């Protein structure tokens, strides 16, 4: 999927901490913790947003642990059920990102990336000669795994998009403690760290 995000976000700071420093230097209204986020930090996630005319694009990136509760290949029917449940939740961006129904946004494209969400895991069956999950604490199972979701929405009334509201996202994935958001919209470029107690960012 060709994303508008590919171009606008070239202009964004290279890191969340730089974005925050820029806001402090320019005395913007949004002031938050300037702690930068590592590339893979449990409890932390990133969200990039661009509103360009009637097109809204979002790119959400998170450690799989935040969304699934594990970072190994599904090893049981319960794991498979959790993967399926997470896919369903991620396929509902209007709800997940608290977008106003008055904006009349419709999803035109969406992609989910992450080895743990792959169709190869559907209907998991462990081969007879394969070690059990408890026996196979292989390096890849102990390693990091990420999930990325990308969305393109067409909004008939973008002027009705007043804010991102991530309350539902935090409630759906309670292991997610904070989300570093970078947004380009009518107010220009913004950077903020949202949490369950402060889950909204105006466009």
Properties at a glance:
single chain; 203 residues; alpha+beta; six-stranded mixed β-sheet; two-stranded antiparallel sheet; 6 helices; globular; disordered N terminus
Give helix % range: 10-25%
Strand content: 25-35%
Whole-angstrom Rg:
18 Å
Secondary-structure class = alpha+beta
Major sheet, described briefly? Answer: 6 strands, mixed
Strands ordered across the widest β-sheet? 3-4-2-1-6-7
Number of helices: 6
What does it look like?
A six-stranded mixed β-sheet has the order 3-4-2-1-6-7. Mean pLDDT is 78; it is low at 2-38 and 119-142. The longest helix is centred in the middle third of the chain and has 14 residues, at 77-90. It has a domain at 42-120 and 142-202. With 203 residues, the chain is of the alpha+beta class. It contains six helices and eight strands; from the N terminus they run αββαααβαββαβββ. Strand 6 and strand 7 (188-194) form a beta hairpin.
Blueprint of the fold:
Elements: H1 16-25, E1 44-52, E2 55-63, H2 64-68, H3 77-90, H4 93-96, E3 105-113, H5 139-142, E4 146-155, E5 163-165, H6 167-172, E6 178-185, E7 188-194, E8 200-202
Parallel strand pairs: 1-6
Antiparallel strand pairs: 1-2, 2-4, 3-4, 5-8, 6-7
